[in-house]
Inverse folding.
């Protein structure tokens, strides 16, 4: 069936007793997209993934895959496959049998099974590991087997539940690049769950930020970072200066919460002139932290409130504590938040 | 750290204490005397083997014991696995109670179980038969399978079942290709233990057997007859052979498969 989306959640909720794990969520995931569901633990992102996989059913709302309503259908009747957080490799089977499991269930003849297993092992760079048991593999290798076991079925959507969480930092960064490369190569829709904002920014075409069972904002990594819509998004993706109430009114003349990223603010001594078209404010440097590539200032504004400013160390002079300064920024970088 | 001489000596003494009586039983199966045992035996013979093997009552008792043990073990395998799966996978009212009730028959003295079964059998006017023995044995055999299966279930990652279903397998296929192979060694160990418990059970059997004699009861009855005493030794010899060989094989098999996990 033709449709312009791979996954559609239509007003989906999942309640566990009084807890609204997923609360009235609606969004589409485009075909071939690398879509990330980002949020802190307990925000509903994993529950959402399980609703798409079919391990769990929504309390209300409907789940569609490629134009087909799959609400209520068990996992084995959905054209999606999952890479589990703990990999869930079958301990009693060797690598080849693990990868071939889906084909074995579908009664694909053995020669073809073996051929496709070799193809997959090639794709995840594990050729020659056919006879190993999962217990004889490292974390990164298990991860690749889990990926191969899912991809061999040529699902139209691949779900990944924090698959890199158990790996150490270096391996995780390497796997991020590899996953992205594999996704490009096979052209399958990837739905990726993570709590790591850096991971989300690195890999995704689009990100959905989850908070308390609701989707706060959906957009490209750049949109999400540059134009956060809510206080939560501004704080969860990177760091941001948040000003509200009187302090915000003093800067913008309007009520509501405003946010501005520390690296968007320029800092100079109070007697320097501010360039045309920039907004500015005056204050006093309260704290200076030298961090090698950049310096972080804490500036107390005359109009009230503090702003953190990050200045690249282009010159080697830093402003001393107590120095009177002018802060300037492009008006578009000052975001009013919901 | 190397064990001291004293510790080694104590260990050997304990092993000897445990196993010398076994060797005495085996050794006197070859004794020429028919009533009294003296040391050293006046002569050795294979005659008692011939005598024992020609006695139909021995064969009847052995056959009954084997049948009871096999059927009780089979029942325990099915019920024990199902009970373990239910207690592991679902939360329901009275779950802990069921766990306790399953463990009770092995914790209670056999004599209590025996009397309880005898009263119930009498109350419902069920005639004593092969099946009353089997039911009696099944009460404590279920526990061994249940415990082993539950322990293995708890070690199993919950996502294995989901992974299998995610890859297209329905419930039956998931059981066949994932759950059963994962449980296999635990079920084997549980079944071995259940079989061994059933095979040499005396107390509960006494209360549930009626006129039939299982092998242990038959052997006990032989002791009261002064003639042909080495016949019991020969029977013991055969029982040891029947029970140790499969246990040894199972041990080899499970230790080989578990070092992979």
């Amino acid at each position: 069936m033709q449709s312009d989306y791979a996954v559609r959640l239509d007003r989906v909720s999942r309640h566990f007793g009084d807890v609204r794990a997923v609360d009235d969520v609606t969004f589409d995931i485009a075909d071939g997209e690398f879509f990330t569901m980002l949020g802190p633990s307990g925000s509903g992102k994993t529950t959402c993934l399980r609703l798409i996989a079919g391990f769990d059913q929504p309390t209300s709302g409907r789940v569609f895959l490629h134009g087909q309503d799959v609400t209520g259908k068990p996992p084995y009747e959905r054209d999606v496959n999952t890479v589990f957080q703990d990999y869930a490799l079958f301990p009693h089977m060797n690598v080849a049998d693990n990868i071939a499991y889906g084909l074995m269930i579908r009664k694909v003849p053995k020669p073809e099974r073996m051929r496709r297993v070799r193809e997959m092992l090639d794709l995840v760079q594990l050729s020659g590991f056919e006879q190993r048991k999962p217990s004889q593999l490292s974390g990164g290798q298990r991860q690749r087997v889990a990926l191969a076991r899912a991809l061999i079925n040529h699902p139209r959507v691949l779900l990944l539940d924090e698959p890199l969480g158990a790996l150490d930092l270096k391996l995780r960064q390497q796997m991020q690049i590899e996953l992205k490369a594999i996704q490009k190569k096979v052209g399958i829709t990837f739905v990726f769950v993570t709590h790591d904002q850096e991971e989300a920014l690195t890999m995704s075409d689009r990100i959905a930020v989850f908070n308390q069972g609701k989707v706060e904002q959906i957009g490209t990594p750049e949109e999400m970072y540059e134009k956060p819509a809510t206080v939560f998004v501004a704080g969860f993706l990177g760091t941001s200066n948040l000003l509200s109430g009187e302090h915000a009114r003093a800067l913008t003349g309007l009520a509501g919460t405003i946010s501005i990223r520390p690296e968007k603010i320029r800092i100079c001594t109070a007697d320097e002139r501010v360039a045309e078209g920039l907004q500015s404010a005056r204050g006093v440097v309260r704290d200076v932290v030298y961090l090698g590539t950049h310096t972080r200032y804490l500036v107390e504004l005359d109009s009230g409130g503090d702003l953190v400013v990050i200045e690249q160390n282009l010159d080697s002079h830093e402003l001393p504590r107590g120095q009177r300064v002018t802060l300037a920024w492009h008006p578009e970088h000052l975001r009013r938040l919901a | 750290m190397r064990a001291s001489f004293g510790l080694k000596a104590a260990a050997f003494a304990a092993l000897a204490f445990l196993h010398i009586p076994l060797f005495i039983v085996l050794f006197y199966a070859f004794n020429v005397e028919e009533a009294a045992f003296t040391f050293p035996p006046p002569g050795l013979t294979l005659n008692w083997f011939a005598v024992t093997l020609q006695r139909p009552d021995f064969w009847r008792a052995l056959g009954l014991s084997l049948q009871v043990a096999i059927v009780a073990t089979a029942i325990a395998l099915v019920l024990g696995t199902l009970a373990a799966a239910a207690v592991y996978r679902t939360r329901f009212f009275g779950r802990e109670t069921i766990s306790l009730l399953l463990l009770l028959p092995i914790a209670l003295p056999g004599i209590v179980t025996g009397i309880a079964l005898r009263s119930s059998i009498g109350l419902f006017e069920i005639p004593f038969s092969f099946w009353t023995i089997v039911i009696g044995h099944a009460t404590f055999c279920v526990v061994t399978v249940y415990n082993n299966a539950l322990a293995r279930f708890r070690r199993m990652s919950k996502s294995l079942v989901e992974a299998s279903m995610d890859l297209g397998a329905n419930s039956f296929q998931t059981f066949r290709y994932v759950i059963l192979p994962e449980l296999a060694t635990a079920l084997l160990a549980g079944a071995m233990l259940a079989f061994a418990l059933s095979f040499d059970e005396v107390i509960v059997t006494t209360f549930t057997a009626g006129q039939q004699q299982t092998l242990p009861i038959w052997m006990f009855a032989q002791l009261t007859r002064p003639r042909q005493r080495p016949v019991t030794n020969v029977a013991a010899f055969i029982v040891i052979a029947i029970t140790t060989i499969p246990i040894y094989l199972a041990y080899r098999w499970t230790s080989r498969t578990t070092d992979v996990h």
Remarks:
- Chain B has a mean pLDDT of 85.
- The two ends of chain B are 28 Å apart (CA to CA).
- The first helix of chain B runs from residue 5 to 27.
- Chain B touches chain A through 21 residues (CB under 8 Å).
